[in-house]
Specification:
The protein is of the alpha+beta class. The chain has two helices and four strands, in the order E-H-E-E-H-E. The protein is globular, with a radius of gyration of 16 Å. About 10% of the residues are buried.
Length: about 100
């Protein structure tokens, strides 16, 4: 069973044209990792200075391997925190009623 990690991604103060050009590929990769449930959630603050990614992995090294595939990785600083637990509300699906 995987552990949960929080990757705190510190974005640069100024975005270069090269970094802006990486954003579409970053979003595509994040969507793929969300579908595979490798990334559990992904958030950006309103000031666009911090991204928080909750990641399911077996080790901090595995988290780094995942983060190394991010198109924006060479533009950011990352800190990784192993979590004691990660709880979230499940996607709400109404109970099925079988008649």
């Amino acid at each position: 069973m995987n552990n949960a990690y929080l990757a705190h991604i510190h974005l640069p103060k100024e975005f270069t044209p090269e970094l802006y050009g990486k954003i579409p590929a970053q979003r595509d990769l994040i969507n793929e990792l969300l579908k595979k449930q490798i990334i559990l959630s992904y958030s950006l603050d309103m000031e666009r200075k911090n991204v928080w990614a909750f990641i399911a992995a077996n080790s901090e090294n595995e988290v780094m391997d995942i983060l190394s595939t991010f198109p924006i990785i060479k533009f950011v600083r990352v800190s990784i925190h192993e979590l004691a637990f990660y709880e979230t509300t499940a996607s709400y699906m109404p109970d099925l009623i079988m008649n």
